[in-house]
Amino acid sequence: MAVRVTSAKRAFSLLYRNLAEVVHIEDGQYLSYDFDGWREISQLKHRFEPHKHDWVRTVKFSIAVPRIIRLTLYDRLPRKEVKFNRRNIFARDGNRCQYCGKKYPTSELSIDHVIPRSQNGKAAWDNVVCCCLSCNVQKGGKTPKQANMSLIAKPVKPRRSPTIDIKFSNSRYRSWKQFLDHAYWSVELK
Q: What is the model's pTM?
């Protein structure tokens, strides 16, 4: 079952301490590797298909960043709450200004408090949205009603990490599909 998306640093830490193993799909077969085995396979992949992987380079060798690792043991499920951060807000709103509806690169977006902090608005999922710079300037320290603007969609707290959808659309993460599909259909509903 898919538990969470983790960083390469954490994945390598778990692998090196034998708390996890790499699950790699090769010609439709699932293969498992410990740290040393993955390091050997990585040397071949670096030689013949370096463009298909992300790499971590050390002084002595290069090792491919694994796409899927399997924990060899764990004692609890991680917290299910979605982190309230800029990346997840942009992902939830699809990098789309929630006032004008246009899509922008993250460098051209800001976070807007629907009810401004100056009017006791909170920094919470249901009070922040993506906003382009010109709409943010136009709105200023007013509510949308005061600024004669309207929201495209009401901001809500996502039920699961919106960044998973972004990563999953990248062809490099195709190997995640089976694990995420299985989790979608087999996780107990409450």
A: 0.50
